[in-house]
Amino acid sequence: MQEKLYFYYTNDLHSNFDQWPRVAGFMKDSISSRKARGEEYWLVDIGDHMDRVHPISEAFMGKANVQLMNDLNYDIATIGNNEGITLSHDDLFHLYDDAEFDVVCTNIDTTDNGNPLWLKRSVKTTSVSGVKVGFIGLTAPFNDYYHLLEWHVSPIFEILDNYVSILKQQTDIIILLSHLGISEDQAIARRYKEIDLIIGGHTHHLLRTGEAVNNTLITAAGKHCSFVGEAILTWDHSLKKLVKKEAYATEITNYPKDLATAQSVQLLQDAADRSLGYTIVHADRPIEVKWFQHTKIMQELTNTLRRFTNTDIAMLNSGLLLDQLPAGNITYQDVHRICPHPINPVTVDLSGSELMEVIRASFTKEFMELKLKGFGFRGEVLGRMIFSGIQVDTDYHKNGEEFVKRVSLPNGKPLEANEIYKVATADTFTFGRLLPEIARSESKKYILPEFLRDLLAETLRKNFL
Questions:
Q1: How many domains are contained in the chain?
Q2: Which GO terms describe its biological process (predicted)?
Q3: 200-222 pLDDT, tens digit each
Q4: Closest Cα partner for 301 from 271, 261, 343?
Q5: Which helix H or strand E contains 201, and what residues bound it?
Q6: Model confidence pTM above 0.90
Q7: How far is CA 59 from the centre of its chain?
Q8: What is the maximum span of the chain, computed from C-alpha positions, in angstroms?
Q9: Domain span at 22
Q10: End of a domain among 272, 302, 329?
Q11: In Å, how far are 45, 50, 193 from 92, measured between CA atoms?
């Protein structure tokens, strides 16, 4: 006798709630089919369901996401970096208090007074016919952030060595819910033949029909739930082993919306509007935002960052602010709308020569017009860099491109090539190759849980009355 076990999954929704009613419609239809046939199924999420870029997640600190997952009767979820490092310690500690599903994250612990009750190391379940399935969950180890929030994420292979061995003795099938990324998933599959299925996320990769690595099937469904995933494992009861593994990612961008879920999302949006609608300041005139020009609001925000971090110099890109602010009452909802990024302040130590390279790079056309996607940035283009604590004088080449002529300190003296300066900026620039001198710095100090929009609210209160 052979039996098919079905696993439906979502990953990296990032609070794209416009798509969620379609997810609900697909899941309800699929589960209805499974129930009609008496087939076993599980509904799982791989993390980054929440993203504070959306006002619903901002207003409820992720608890509305949990409510929506409860409504669809999810069985198991793991946490992503957006749940893990964009919430304060207490908000994450209590995020899943009302979850009606299991939360499994095998490699995270608090560093203070014990783990929350919802946090499980592994989850074991048994089908009606007696097939034992074990789940492990892993999240990406951003410990530079986690440690500041009183959490610790343990090394991946150290955890897997222990728990794979345990589950191999206790279950028939091992499934890893991995918010690690495709490269790590492939490395795990090469090392642990005991893992039957890896359902992945984090790097937003799409595997339409899965990828087989040794004995393991890897699958993932991209980002924003444009696709929903399904894995099918066929168990042979006579042979007592899996005889087939399948994975499919189905595009649902045109799938009919579940109307009850759409109504729930709208009610949450209405509640979020009320929650975030309190006034920050009353402005007598509109506040201009321009991505490629110097503006008062960006200068004052950069000044606020320098004071907040007590650094020599601060620098922020104008593309952080997405829209103008009208005259009249400016609410926190307005602040969130124009600065939705989950971006934290960071400080780094740079030599004068390194700082000059950063400044020169930031004035290139390629940098200012870069349409960045990722690293916490949710805007359109990076825009012009604004500085506090130094004076940057520029000129233009004959071809119209701007270049840096001179950089001077408040006393009029130039930067010293070998002098070390403490610089504050957006943590976006500590990743990738946008500004290599910042990314390579060994003195990064992230400041949590404050986002740049918290500093924007403070800037408006103090400078735009």
A1: 2
A2: nucleotide catabolic process
A3: 999 999 999 999 999 999 999 99
A4: 343
A5: none
A6: yes
A7: 17
A8: 83
A9: 2-272
A10: 272
A11: 17, 11, 33
